[in-house]
Design goal:
- The protein is an alpha/beta fold.
- It has 2 domains: 201 residues, NAD(P)-binding Rossmann-like Domain (Rossmann fold, 3-Layer(aba) Sandwich), CATH 3.40.50; 92 residues, Alpha-Beta Complex (UDP-galactose 4-epimerase, domain 1), CATH 3.90.25.
- It contains 10 helices and 14 strands.
- The chain has a 7-stranded parallel beta sheet, with helices on both faces. A 3-stranded mixed beta sheet has the order 12-9-14.
- α1 links the parallel β1 and β2.
- The longest helix is centred in the N-terminal third of the chain and has 22 residues.
- The mean pLDDT is 96.
- Bound molecules: uridine-5'-diphosphate.
- The site of uridine-5'-diphosphate has 14 residues, from α6 and β8.
């Protein structure tokens, strides 16, 4: 019988955090959520999880939760995630993603929490020299979002060297899909991510889908990304938790993706296939700062953690995203 952990999940009412809560429950652990509900939803948190409404920078509250709930580890998802917004308002990102992470890490060290799993991003690489990207390739973010996350990775590295503490930074590629049992999904209002926009359009919530750039150095000229099902990502967090506890001397920085990609056209083709319909596609110019292709090298996470993705199938990702989008319509209209 493996040890069961009490895990503080920051941002547990958000897209990825709410899936991590389910993955923890499914694995028999005990999630405790803290979320300020600025972008997350109370209904997205599984009923079995304990919930505290508040901000991770409220160290008094975080300390109280750590001792009251006997917290063993923290999964840290809370933060801001809109890249263009980070360019317009960098200080918001350095506050929400960097300064508040510093405060949370301080609370962890003070409260004797020894493990942290951190939501990092492929945006830490910027525009990589080549793809697939390996973890030891240069990290040169091209926007404040990527920098704000990279700074937190650096804090974690230094804190792990100085204290009785280890961490796993997971660098996410393009997270998509929804819980296969339709318990939660991507619910953000005004989302900018391709698949979310495509399923909204498929359900008539948008008139068309814009294709940003058709002259990239890719097979069909549109941008290629490594789309990973959110439930596979959530399960990677649970494995990371168990690995951190099993070897407290070791920390990890690992890519989280499938190691292969799809173009914008291929994603839209998959939506057409699944819905048996045709999305209205509008060809537009490139979006600033978009690389041609961004694909993970996932050798390390597979080797270190024995991570085995279960939903590496684009049509299935689309099916789950669509099912959730329908469900969301019901939630929003009742
Ligand atoms: N994209 C697009 N139309 C959209 C949104 C995105 O063509 O409405 C493209 C974007 O240029 C990129 C890919 O889809 O090549 C994935 O973009 P997304 O914003 O989903 O994630 P990112 O890779 O920027 O994190």
């Amino acid at each position: 019988m493996t040890k069961k952990f009490n895990v503080l999940v920051t941002g547990g009412a958000g897209f990825i955090g709410s899936h991590a809560v389910l993955a923890l429950l499914d694995a028999g652990h005990r999630p405790v959520v803290i979320d300020n509900l600025v972008t997350g939803f109370r209904w997205a948190i599984a009923d079995e999880a304990t919930f505290y409404e508040g901000d991770i920078s409220n160290s008094e509250l975080v300390q109280k939760i750590i001792s009251e709930q006997n917290i063993d580890a923290i999964m840290h998802f809370a933060g801001s995630v809109v890249v263009p917004e980070s360019v317009e308002n960098p200080l918001k990102y350095y506050n929400n993603n960097t300064a508040k992470s510093r405060s949370l890490i301080q609370s962890a060290v003070t409260g004797g929490v020894r493990h942290m799993i951190f939501s990092s991003t492929a945006a830490t690489y910027g525009i990589p020299e080549s793809s697939p990207v390996r973890e030891d390739m240069p990290t040169v973010p091209i926007n404040p979002y990527g920098t704000s996350k990279l700074m937190t990775e650096m804090m974690l590295r230094d804190v792990a060297a100085a204290h009785d503490f280890n961490y796993c930074a997971l660098r996410y590629f393009n997270v998509a899909g929804a819980d296969p049992h339709c318990r939660t999904g991507q619910s953000t209002v005004g989302a900018t991510h391709l698949l979310k926009i495509a399923v909204e359009a498929a359900l008539g919530k948008r008139a068309s889908v814009s294709i940003f750039g058709t002259d990239y150095a890719t097979e069909d000229g549109t941008g290629v990304r490594d789309y990973i099902h959110v439930s596979d990502l959530a399960s990677a967090h649970v494995i990371a938790l168990e690995a951190l506890a099993a070897d407290p001397e070791r920390s990890h920085t690992l890519n989280c993706g499938y190691g292969h990609g799809y173009s914008v056209m291929q994603v839209l083709d998959a939506v057409d296939r699944v819905t048996n319909n045709k999305l209205d596609r509008k060809m537009e110019g490139r979006r600033a700062g978009d690389p041609d292709a961004l694909i993970s090298d996932n050798t390390a996470i597979k080797q270190h953690f024995g991570w085995k993705p279960q939903y590496d199938d684009l049509d299935q990702i689309v099916q789950h995203a669509l099912a959730w989008e329908r469900r969301l319509t019901d939630i929003q209209t009742t």
